[in-house]
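Troubleshooting log. The previous structure file for this entry was overwritten by mistake, so regenerating from the original sequence record. Sequence copied from the archived sheet and checked twice against the printout by T.R.
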Amino acid sequence: MEKKELRKIIRQRKAALSCEERKRLSHEVCRKVMETEVWQEARTIFLYMAMDDEVDTRELIADGMRKGKTVVLPTCVGNDLVLRVYEGEESMVSGAYGIMEPTGRVMEEKDYGEIDLAVVPGVAFDKDGGRMGRGRGFYDRTLRKIPRCYKMGVCWEVQMVEKVPMDEFDIKMNNVII
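Regenerated output below.
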């Protein structure tokens, strides 16, 4: 199946979920993430602010801050993600695509090696860690710059497929939490 067709199918599946289901499922995914050893041991975590059709990570952001972890969130600048240190809700502004973005200190690329865990959204995932994004390559380009960090995809069950079509630019996840 081609990526364009798969994106359409997954979009329809996600649209069938009610707002309450999305909240409940997001909470379950976040709980499972927080139970992992990699979450508990990570000191610097690359997270994201969710769009309406993605696993809501605000619970993870709050837990990371409570536990004294450094949380970095992406901002869209042109065709790239720039990572900024999260400094609390008051430091967030509406950015590209209507997604809330941090205004905190920019994490320099030379410091990306400090990132222990990246929690990554996607349109579809498979059991082997295959990930398909929205097609712009934002996360793949960024993840390529932090090869040693643990990459954890997060999604709802409706986003899991038998096999994600991947090319040489796509970055596999170490694990996918549903």
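The beta strands are 44-46, 70-77, 80-85, 92-94, 100-102, 117-120, 124-125, 131-132, 150-154, 175-177. Archived copy saved in two places this time.
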